[in-house]
Amino acid sequence: MRRTKKPKIINQVLVEDYAAEGKCLARIDGKVIFIEGAVPGDRVDVRIHKSKKDWAEGTAFHFHAYAPHRVAARCAHTGVCGGCQWQELPYEWQLRYKQQQVEQTLKRIGKIELPTLDPIVGSEYTFQYRNKIEYTFSNKRFLLPAELSNPDVSATTNVVGFHARGFFDKVVDITTCHLQAEPTNQLRLFIKSYAQQHQLSFYDYRLHTGFLRNLQVRICETGQIMVNLIVGEDDPARLFPLLESLQKEFPLVTTLLYTINLKWNDSLFDLEPIPYTGQGFIEEELFNTRYQKKFRFKIGPRSFFQTNTKQAERLYQLTEEAAGLTGQETLYDLYCGTGSISIFMSPGAKKIIGVEQVAAAIEDARENARLNNLNNTSFFAGDVIDICTSDFFEAQGKADVVITDPPRAGMHPKLIEKLIEISAPTVVYVSCNPATQARDLQLLDAHYQLTKVQPVDMFPHTHHIENIVQLKRR
Protein backbone atom coordinates (compact mmCIF):
# COMPACT_ATOMS: atom_id res chain seq x y z
CA MET A 1 0.00 0.00 0.00
CA ARG A 2 1.30 3.43 -0.98
CA ARG A 3 1.55 5.82 1.94
CA THR A 4 0.44 9.40 1.58
CA LYS A 5 3.25 11.74 2.45
CA LYS A 6 2.33 14.05 5.31
CA PRO A 7 2.58 17.76 4.47
CA LYS A 8 5.38 19.59 6.20
CA ILE A 9 4.34 22.13 8.82
CA ILE A 10 6.41 25.18 9.76
CA ASN A 11 5.32 26.81 13.01
CA GLN A 12 5.42 30.41 14.20
CA VAL A 13 6.36 31.99 10.89
CA LEU A 14 6.50 35.78 10.80
CA VAL A 15 5.16 36.99 7.46
CA GLU A 16 7.61 39.66 6.37
CA ASP A 17 6.59 41.15 3.05
CA TYR A 18 4.38 40.98 -0.01
CA ALA A 19 5.70 38.89 -2.90
CA ALA A 20 3.33 39.02 -5.91
CA GLU A 21 0.13 37.48 -7.25
CA GLY A 22 -1.52 37.80 -3.85
CA LYS A 23 1.17 35.86 -1.99
CA CYS A 24 3.33 37.03 0.89
CA LEU A 25 6.73 35.79 1.94
CA ALA A 26 8.92 34.89 4.87
CA ARG A 27 12.58 33.90 5.07
CA ILE A 28 13.74 30.95 7.15
CA ASP A 29 17.43 30.03 7.23
CA GLY A 30 17.96 31.73 3.88
CA LYS A 31 15.02 29.95 2.23
CA VAL A 32 12.09 32.00 0.90
CA ILE A 33 8.63 30.75 1.84
CA PHE A 34 5.75 32.02 -0.31
CA ILE A 35 2.57 32.06 1.77
CA GLU A 36 -1.09 32.29 0.80
CA GLY A 37 -3.84 33.39 3.16
CA ALA A 38 -1.85 35.86 5.25
CA VAL A 39 -0.75 39.48 5.25
CA PRO A 40 2.64 40.97 6.21
CA GLY A 41 2.93 41.17 9.98
CA ASP A 42 0.92 38.00 10.73
CA ARG A 43 2.55 35.21 12.73
CA VAL A 44 1.27 31.90 11.38
CA ASP A 45 1.73 28.16 11.04
CA VAL A 46 2.27 27.23 7.40
CA ARG A 47 1.36 23.99 5.65
CA ILE A 48 3.95 23.47 2.89
CA HIS A 49 2.68 21.97 -0.38
CA LYS A 50 5.73 22.55 -2.59
CA SER A 51 9.37 22.70 -1.53
CA LYS A 52 12.54 23.30 -3.54
CA LYS A 53 16.12 23.96 -2.50
CA ASP A 54 15.84 27.75 -2.24
CA TRP A 55 12.10 28.31 -1.92
CA ALA A 56 8.83 26.75 -0.87
CA GLU A 57 5.10 27.44 -1.16
CA GLY A 58 2.49 26.99 1.51
CA THR A 59 -0.77 28.14 3.05
CA ALA A 60 -1.33 29.75 6.43
CA PHE A 61 -3.72 27.59 8.46
CA HIS A 62 -3.30 28.77 12.04
CA PHE A 63 -2.72 32.33 13.30
CA HIS A 64 -0.76 32.98 16.47
CA ALA A 65 -0.90 36.75 16.08
CA TYR A 66 -2.43 39.13 13.58
CA ALA A 67 -0.60 42.05 12.01
CA PRO A 68 -1.33 45.26 13.98
CA HIS A 69 -2.49 47.02 10.82
CA ARG A 70 -5.01 44.31 9.88
CA VAL A 71 -8.61 45.41 9.37
CA ALA A 72 -11.81 43.42 9.40
CA ALA A 73 -12.89 42.27 5.94
CA ARG A 74 -16.22 43.68 4.85
CA CYS A 75 -17.11 40.54 2.91
CA ALA A 76 -18.03 37.28 4.60
CA HIS A 77 -16.56 35.33 1.67
CA THR A 78 -13.12 36.94 1.53
CA GLY A 79 -10.28 34.52 0.94
CA VAL A 80 -12.60 31.85 -0.43
CA CYS A 81 -14.26 33.03 -3.64
CA GLY A 82 -11.09 34.51 -5.14
CA GLY A 83 -12.64 37.87 -5.99
CA CYS A 84 -10.81 39.83 -3.27
CA GLN A 85 -7.51 38.73 -1.73
CA TRP A 86 -6.63 41.81 0.31
CA GLN A 87 -9.65 43.05 2.23
CA GLU A 88 -7.75 42.57 5.51
CA LEU A 89 -5.16 45.13 4.41
CA PRO A 90 -5.92 48.85 4.77
CA TYR A 91 -6.19 50.39 1.33
CA GLU A 92 -3.11 52.58 1.80
CA TRP A 93 -1.09 49.41 2.52
CA GLN A 94 -2.47 47.75 -0.61
CA LEU A 95 -1.29 50.74 -2.65
CA ARG A 96 2.12 50.66 -0.99
CA TYR A 97 2.65 47.00 -1.91
CA LYS A 98 1.41 47.49 -5.46
CA GLN A 99 3.83 50.37 -5.94
CA GLN A 100 6.59 48.15 -4.55
CA GLN A 101 5.57 45.31 -6.88
CA VAL A 102 5.87 47.51 -9.98
CA GLU A 103 9.28 48.86 -9.00
CA GLN A 104 10.74 45.49 -8.02
CA THR A 105 9.35 43.76 -11.12
CA LEU A 106 10.79 46.36 -13.49
CA LYS A 107 14.17 46.11 -11.75
CA ARG A 108 14.29 42.32 -11.47
CA ILE A 109 12.97 41.40 -14.92
CA GLY A 110 13.59 44.53 -16.96
CA LYS A 111 17.10 45.18 -15.64
CA ILE A 112 16.97 48.71 -17.05
CA GLU A 113 17.57 52.15 -15.61
CA LEU A 114 14.41 53.45 -13.93
CA PRO A 115 13.30 57.02 -13.37
CA THR A 116 11.72 57.86 -10.01
CA LEU A 117 8.32 56.19 -10.01
CA ASP A 118 5.32 58.48 -9.75
CA PRO A 119 3.10 57.67 -6.74
CA ILE A 120 0.46 55.08 -7.51
CA VAL A 121 -3.00 56.50 -8.27
CA GLY A 122 -5.55 54.83 -6.03
CA SER A 123 -9.21 54.29 -6.75
CA GLU A 124 -11.68 56.78 -5.30
CA TYR A 125 -14.09 53.93 -4.65
CA THR A 126 -12.76 50.73 -3.08
CA PHE A 127 -16.10 48.90 -3.07
CA GLN A 128 -18.91 48.78 -5.63
CA TYR A 129 -16.45 49.91 -8.30
CA ARG A 130 -17.05 47.18 -10.90
CA ASN A 131 -19.37 47.96 -13.79
CA LYS A 132 -19.41 44.30 -14.88
CA ILE A 133 -19.71 41.11 -12.91
CA GLU A 134 -20.46 37.50 -13.77
CA TYR A 135 -22.03 34.95 -11.44
CA THR A 136 -22.00 31.18 -11.88
CA PHE A 137 -24.78 28.69 -11.16
CA SER A 138 -23.66 25.26 -10.00
CA ASN A 139 -25.04 22.17 -8.33
CA LYS A 140 -21.76 21.76 -6.39
CA ARG A 141 -21.26 23.98 -3.37
CA PHE A 142 -17.79 24.69 -2.04
CA LEU A 143 -17.70 23.74 1.62
CA LEU A 144 -15.72 25.74 4.14
CA PRO A 145 -13.43 23.76 6.49
CA ALA A 146 -15.92 24.21 9.34
CA GLU A 147 -18.71 22.80 7.16
CA LEU A 148 -16.95 19.61 6.06
CA SER A 149 -18.00 17.66 9.16
CA ASN A 150 -21.47 19.20 9.38
CA PRO A 151 -24.09 16.65 8.21
CA ASP A 152 -26.62 19.44 7.72
CA VAL A 153 -24.52 21.08 4.99
CA SER A 154 -24.43 19.27 1.67
CA ALA A 155 -21.87 19.76 -1.11
CA THR A 156 -24.50 18.80 -3.72
CA THR A 157 -26.58 21.94 -3.34
CA ASN A 158 -27.73 24.45 -5.94
CA VAL A 159 -25.73 27.66 -5.46
CA VAL A 160 -24.94 30.85 -7.35
CA GLY A 161 -21.84 32.93 -6.81
CA PHE A 162 -18.17 32.69 -7.81
CA HIS A 163 -15.90 29.73 -8.47
CA ALA A 164 -13.91 28.78 -5.41
CA ARG A 165 -10.19 29.40 -5.82
CA GLY A 166 -8.60 26.40 -7.51
CA PHE A 167 -11.89 24.61 -8.32
CA PHE A 168 -13.53 24.66 -11.75
CA ASP A 169 -16.68 22.82 -10.63
CA LYS A 170 -17.34 24.15 -7.11
CA VAL A 171 -18.96 27.52 -6.47
CA VAL A 172 -19.03 29.66 -3.33
CA ASP A 173 -22.64 30.49 -2.46
CA ILE A 174 -22.53 34.28 -2.24
CA THR A 175 -24.90 36.16 0.03
CA THR A 176 -23.63 39.70 -0.60
CA CYS A 177 -20.95 40.80 -3.04
CA HIS A 178 -19.56 44.29 -2.41
CA LEU A 179 -17.83 44.71 -5.76
CA GLN A 180 -20.85 45.98 -7.67
CA ALA A 181 -23.73 48.27 -6.70
CA GLU A 182 -27.30 47.07 -6.40
CA PRO A 183 -29.39 45.60 -7.86
CA THR A 184 -26.62 43.04 -8.49
CA ASN A 185 -27.23 40.98 -5.33
CA GLN A 186 -31.01 41.37 -5.60
CA LEU A 187 -30.95 40.04 -9.16
CA ARG A 188 -28.84 37.04 -8.28
CA LEU A 189 -30.85 36.09 -5.21
CA PHE A 190 -34.16 36.57 -7.02
CA ILE A 191 -33.16 34.13 -9.77
CA LYS A 192 -31.92 31.63 -7.19
CA SER A 193 -35.21 31.81 -5.29
CA TYR A 194 -37.26 31.55 -8.48
CA ALA A 195 -35.23 28.52 -9.61
CA GLN A 196 -35.80 26.75 -6.30
CA GLN A 197 -39.54 27.40 -6.46
CA HIS A 198 -39.83 26.18 -10.07
CA GLN A 199 -37.36 23.26 -9.84
CA LEU A 200 -34.92 24.70 -12.40
CA SER A 201 -31.66 22.74 -12.52
CA PHE A 202 -28.27 24.36 -11.93
CA TYR A 203 -25.28 23.53 -14.15
CA ASP A 204 -23.03 20.58 -13.45
CA TYR A 205 -19.50 21.45 -14.66
CA ARG A 206 -18.35 17.84 -14.68
CA LEU A 207 -21.33 16.31 -16.50
CA HIS A 208 -22.10 19.45 -18.56
CA THR A 209 -25.80 19.27 -17.82
CA GLY A 210 -28.24 21.71 -16.24
CA PHE A 211 -30.38 24.69 -17.15
CA LEU A 212 -28.96 27.78 -15.37
CA ARG A 213 -25.29 28.52 -16.16
CA ASN A 214 -24.26 32.17 -15.72
CA LEU A 215 -25.57 35.64 -15.01
CA GLN A 216 -23.83 38.77 -16.31
CA VAL A 217 -24.69 42.18 -14.88
CA ARG A 218 -23.41 45.52 -16.21
CA ILE A 219 -24.22 48.76 -14.40
CA CYS A 220 -23.17 52.04 -16.01
CA GLU A 221 -22.53 55.51 -14.60
CA THR A 222 -25.36 56.63 -16.90
CA GLY A 223 -27.75 54.54 -14.78
CA GLN A 224 -28.31 52.00 -17.55
CA ILE A 225 -28.31 48.32 -16.56
CA MET A 226 -27.76 45.25 -18.73
CA VAL A 227 -28.58 41.72 -17.59
CA ASN A 228 -27.63 38.65 -19.63
CA LEU A 229 -28.86 35.25 -18.42
CA ILE A 230 -26.92 32.32 -19.87
CA VAL A 231 -28.66 28.94 -19.92
CA GLY A 232 -27.36 25.49 -20.80
CA GLU A 233 -30.53 24.16 -22.42
CA ASP A 234 -32.74 25.50 -25.20
CA ASP A 235 -36.05 25.36 -23.35
CA PRO A 236 -38.33 28.40 -23.93
CA ALA A 237 -41.04 26.94 -21.68
CA ARG A 238 -38.77 27.35 -18.66
CA LEU A 239 -36.74 30.35 -19.87
CA PHE A 240 -39.39 32.89 -20.85
CA PRO A 241 -41.46 32.76 -17.64
CA LEU A 242 -38.23 33.42 -15.70
CA LEU A 243 -37.33 36.37 -17.93
CA GLU A 244 -40.86 37.76 -17.62
CA SER A 245 -40.64 37.55 -13.83
CA LEU A 246 -37.24 39.28 -13.91
CA GLN A 247 -38.62 42.06 -16.08
CA LYS A 248 -41.54 42.67 -13.71
CA GLU A 249 -39.38 42.53 -10.56
CA PHE A 250 -36.63 44.81 -11.93
CA PRO A 251 -38.17 47.42 -14.24
CA LEU A 252 -35.00 49.56 -13.95
CA VAL A 253 -33.07 47.02 -16.04
CA THR A 254 -32.51 48.81 -19.36
CA THR A 255 -31.99 45.71 -21.46
CA LEU A 256 -32.52 42.05 -20.57
CA LEU A 257 -30.91 39.38 -22.74
CA TYR A 258 -30.55 35.64 -22.79
CA THR A 259 -27.87 33.42 -24.29
CA ILE A 260 -28.21 29.71 -25.00
CA ASN A 261 -24.86 28.03 -24.43
CA LEU A 262 -24.76 24.33 -25.29
CA LYS A 263 -20.94 24.19 -25.31
CA TRP A 264 -18.64 22.84 -22.63
CA ASN A 265 -16.92 26.21 -22.10
CA ASP A 266 -18.36 29.50 -20.87
CA SER A 267 -17.01 31.76 -23.64
CA LEU A 268 -19.62 33.94 -25.34
CA PHE A 269 -17.52 35.14 -28.28
CA ASP A 270 -19.01 32.57 -30.66
CA LEU A 271 -22.57 32.85 -29.27
CA GLU A 272 -25.30 35.36 -29.98
CA PRO A 273 -27.01 36.95 -26.95
CA ILE A 274 -30.68 37.62 -27.76
CA PRO A 275 -32.51 40.73 -26.41
CA TYR A 276 -35.68 39.93 -24.46
CA THR A 277 -36.34 43.57 -23.55
CA GLY A 278 -34.54 46.74 -24.60
CA GLN A 279 -32.11 47.29 -27.47
CA GLY A 280 -29.55 44.69 -26.49
CA PHE A 281 -26.91 47.25 -25.49
CA ILE A 282 -26.31 50.03 -22.98
CA GLU A 283 -24.28 53.23 -23.08
CA GLU A 284 -21.53 54.41 -20.77
CA GLU A 285 -19.78 57.77 -20.49
CA LEU A 286 -16.19 58.82 -19.89
CA PHE A 287 -15.29 62.43 -19.10
CA ASN A 288 -12.03 63.95 -20.37
CA THR A 289 -11.24 66.73 -17.90
CA ARG A 290 -8.51 68.26 -20.05
CA TYR A 291 -10.95 69.09 -22.82
CA GLN A 292 -14.07 69.17 -20.63
CA LYS A 293 -15.63 66.73 -23.06
CA LYS A 294 -17.87 63.74 -22.40
CA PHE A 295 -17.63 60.66 -24.63
CA ARG A 296 -20.33 58.06 -24.97
CA PHE A 297 -19.71 54.36 -25.58
CA LYS A 298 -22.10 51.68 -26.78
CA ILE A 299 -21.57 48.45 -24.84
CA GLY A 300 -23.00 45.11 -25.87
CA PRO A 301 -22.99 41.85 -23.88
CA ARG A 302 -19.73 40.77 -25.57
CA SER A 303 -18.02 44.17 -25.61
CA PHE A 304 -14.83 44.80 -23.69
CA PHE A 305 -14.85 47.92 -21.53
CA GLN A 306 -12.63 48.86 -18.60
CA THR A 307 -14.29 47.33 -15.54
CA ASN A 308 -13.77 50.30 -13.20
CA THR A 309 -15.34 53.23 -15.08
CA LYS A 310 -14.25 56.08 -12.81
CA GLN A 311 -10.69 54.80 -12.58
CA ALA A 312 -10.63 54.24 -16.35
CA GLU A 313 -11.05 58.00 -16.73
CA ARG A 314 -7.92 58.54 -14.61
CA LEU A 315 -6.02 55.79 -16.46
CA TYR A 316 -6.80 57.34 -19.84
CA GLN A 317 -6.07 60.88 -18.62
CA LEU A 318 -2.64 59.80 -17.39
CA THR A 319 -2.00 57.90 -20.62
CA GLU A 320 -2.85 61.03 -22.58
CA GLU A 321 -0.48 63.11 -20.43
CA ALA A 322 2.29 60.58 -21.08
CA ALA A 323 1.58 60.81 -24.82
CA GLY A 324 2.20 64.59 -24.70
CA LEU A 325 -0.41 65.38 -27.35
CA THR A 326 -0.59 68.89 -28.83
CA GLY A 327 -3.25 68.35 -31.50
CA GLN A 328 -0.75 67.81 -34.34
CA GLU A 329 0.24 64.18 -33.78
CA THR A 330 -0.50 61.01 -35.70
CA LEU A 331 -1.19 58.47 -32.97
CA TYR A 332 -1.27 54.68 -33.31
CA ASP A 333 -3.34 52.80 -30.73
CA LEU A 334 -2.24 49.15 -30.85
CA TYR A 335 -4.38 46.46 -29.20
CA CYS A 336 -7.06 49.18 -29.20
CA GLY A 337 -10.01 46.96 -28.21
CA THR A 338 -13.26 48.86 -28.65
CA GLY A 339 -11.37 52.11 -29.18
CA SER A 340 -11.96 53.65 -25.77
CA ILE A 341 -8.42 55.09 -25.46
CA SER A 342 -8.48 56.35 -29.06
CA ILE A 343 -11.83 58.05 -28.64
CA PHE A 344 -10.94 59.51 -25.25
CA MET A 345 -7.77 61.07 -26.72
CA SER A 346 -9.30 62.14 -30.04
CA PRO A 347 -9.40 65.90 -29.22
CA GLY A 348 -5.62 65.93 -28.65
CA ALA A 349 -4.46 64.23 -31.86
CA LYS A 350 -4.60 65.11 -35.52
CA LYS A 351 -5.13 61.50 -36.57
CA ILE A 352 -5.61 58.22 -34.68
CA ILE A 353 -5.20 54.72 -36.11
CA GLY A 354 -6.39 51.79 -33.99
CA VAL A 355 -5.52 48.13 -34.54
CA GLU A 356 -7.16 45.18 -32.81
CA GLN A 357 -7.35 41.44 -33.53
CA VAL A 358 -10.97 40.93 -32.45
CA ALA A 359 -13.18 41.97 -35.38
CA ALA A 360 -16.24 42.50 -33.16
CA ALA A 361 -14.26 44.94 -31.02
CA ILE A 362 -13.31 46.94 -34.12
CA GLU A 363 -16.98 47.08 -35.11
CA ASP A 364 -17.68 48.52 -31.64
CA ALA A 365 -14.82 51.01 -32.05
CA ARG A 366 -16.15 52.26 -35.36
CA GLU A 367 -19.66 52.50 -33.94
CA ASN A 368 -18.40 54.44 -30.92
CA ALA A 369 -16.48 56.84 -33.18
CA ARG A 370 -19.70 57.50 -35.11
CA LEU A 371 -21.60 57.90 -31.85
CA ASN A 372 -19.20 60.69 -30.84
CA ASN A 373 -19.13 62.31 -34.32
CA LEU A 374 -15.39 61.76 -34.77
CA ASN A 375 -13.68 62.16 -38.12
CA ASN A 376 -10.03 61.71 -37.11
CA THR A 377 -10.08 58.00 -36.15
CA SER A 378 -9.63 54.86 -38.26
CA PHE A 379 -9.84 51.30 -36.95
CA PHE A 380 -8.43 48.12 -38.50
CA ALA A 381 -9.20 44.50 -37.60
CA GLY A 382 -6.41 41.94 -37.56
CA ASP A 383 -3.40 40.71 -35.62
CA VAL A 384 -1.08 43.63 -34.95
CA ILE A 385 1.93 41.77 -36.36
CA ASP A 386 0.01 41.16 -39.62
CA ILE A 387 -1.51 44.64 -39.91
CA CYS A 388 1.46 46.74 -38.78
CA THR A 389 3.69 46.32 -41.82
CA SER A 390 5.96 48.94 -43.37
CA ASP A 391 3.37 49.48 -46.11
CA PHE A 392 0.67 50.04 -43.48
CA PHE A 393 2.66 52.74 -41.69
CA GLU A 394 3.57 54.35 -44.99
CA ALA A 395 -0.08 54.44 -46.05
CA GLN A 396 -1.44 55.72 -42.72
CA GLY A 397 1.33 58.17 -41.94
CA LYS A 398 4.48 58.36 -39.87
CA ALA A 399 3.85 57.67 -36.18
CA ASP A 400 4.47 60.54 -33.77
CA VAL A 401 3.11 58.61 -30.78
CA VAL A 402 2.40 54.90 -30.31
CA ILE A 403 0.17 53.67 -27.50
CA THR A 404 0.27 49.95 -26.89
CA ASP A 405 -2.07 48.22 -24.45
CA PRO A 406 -1.50 44.47 -24.95
CA PRO A 407 -3.11 41.56 -23.08
CA ARG A 408 -1.37 39.98 -20.07
CA ALA A 409 1.02 38.05 -22.30
CA GLY A 410 2.57 41.33 -23.45
CA MET A 411 3.67 42.34 -26.95
CA HIS A 412 4.67 39.94 -29.69
CA PRO A 413 8.45 40.08 -30.35
CA LYS A 414 7.79 40.91 -34.01
CA LEU A 415 5.76 43.95 -32.95
CA ILE A 416 8.64 45.09 -30.75
CA GLU A 417 10.92 44.83 -33.78
CA LYS A 418 8.43 46.86 -35.81
CA LEU A 419 8.23 49.56 -33.11
CA ILE A 420 12.00 49.86 -33.21
CA GLU A 421 11.87 50.08 -36.99
CA ILE A 422 9.20 52.81 -37.23
CA SER A 423 11.01 54.73 -34.48
CA ALA A 424 8.17 56.89 -33.14
CA PRO A 425 9.50 59.67 -30.87
CA THR A 426 7.16 58.61 -28.03
CA VAL A 427 5.80 55.21 -27.03
CA VAL A 428 3.33 54.84 -24.16
CA TYR A 429 2.99 51.27 -22.90
CA VAL A 430 -0.09 50.51 -20.78
CA SER A 431 0.04 47.11 -19.10
CA CYS A 432 -2.04 44.95 -16.79
CA ASN A 433 1.00 42.73 -16.14
CA PRO A 434 4.21 44.46 -15.01
CA ALA A 435 6.20 41.23 -15.49
CA THR A 436 5.60 40.94 -19.24
CA GLN A 437 5.86 44.72 -19.54
CA ALA A 438 9.31 44.59 -17.93
CA ARG A 439 10.37 41.85 -20.35
CA ASP A 440 9.29 43.98 -23.33
CA LEU A 441 10.96 47.12 -21.95
CA GLN A 442 14.27 45.28 -21.79
CA LEU A 443 13.94 44.46 -25.51
CA LEU A 444 13.22 48.12 -26.30
CA ASP A 445 15.92 49.55 -24.03
CA ALA A 446 18.67 49.94 -26.62
CA HIS A 447 16.41 52.22 -28.66
CA TYR A 448 14.09 53.80 -26.10
CA GLN A 449 14.73 55.40 -22.73
CA LEU A 450 12.21 54.78 -19.97
CA THR A 451 11.25 58.28 -18.83
CA LYS A 452 8.09 57.85 -16.77
CA VAL A 453 6.47 55.10 -14.68
CA GLN A 454 2.94 55.59 -13.37
CA PRO A 455 1.17 52.73 -11.54
CA VAL A 456 -2.64 52.88 -11.37
CA ASP A 457 -4.86 50.72 -9.15
CA MET A 458 -7.94 49.63 -11.08
CA PHE A 459 -8.97 46.79 -8.75
CA PRO A 460 -8.88 47.49 -5.00
CA HIS A 461 -8.55 44.46 -2.69
CA THR A 462 -6.93 42.38 -5.45
CA HIS A 463 -3.30 41.94 -6.51
CA HIS A 464 -4.01 43.21 -10.04
CA ILE A 465 -2.40 46.46 -11.15
CA GLU A 466 -2.12 48.61 -14.27
CA ASN A 467 1.08 50.41 -15.12
CA ILE A 468 1.75 53.21 -17.61
CA VAL A 469 5.26 53.84 -18.88
CA GLN A 470 6.51 56.58 -21.18
CA LEU A 471 9.37 55.79 -23.55
CA LYS A 472 11.37 58.37 -25.51
CA ARG A 473 13.43 57.50 -28.57
CA ARG A 474 17.14 57.60 -27.78
Description:
The chain has helices spanning 91-110, 184-197, 236-249, 309-323, 340-345, 359-371, 384-387, 390-396, 413-422, 434-444; strands spanning 8-14, 17-20, 23-28, 31-36, 43-51, 55-65, 132-138, 159-163, 171-173, 212-219, 225-231, 255-260, 274-277, 282-288, 293-299, 330-334, 351-356, 377-381, 401-404, 426-431, 448-456, 466-473. A hairpin with a 2-residue loop joins strand 3 and strand 4 (31-36). The protein has a 7-stranded mixed sheet with strand order 9-8-7-10-11-12-13. The protein has a 7-stranded mixed sheet with strand order 18-17-16-19-20-22-21, sandwiched between helices. It folds into 3 domains: 8-70, OB fold (Dihydrolipoamide Acetyltransferase, E2P), CATH 2.40.50.140; 95-125 and 308-473, Rossmann fold (3-Layer(aba) Sandwich), CATH 3.40.50; 132-283, OB fold (Dihydrolipoamide Acetyltransferase, E2P), CATH 2.40.50. Helices cover 24% and strands 30% of the residues. It is built from 10 helices and 22 strands. It is α/β, with parallel strands linked by helices and 474 residues long.
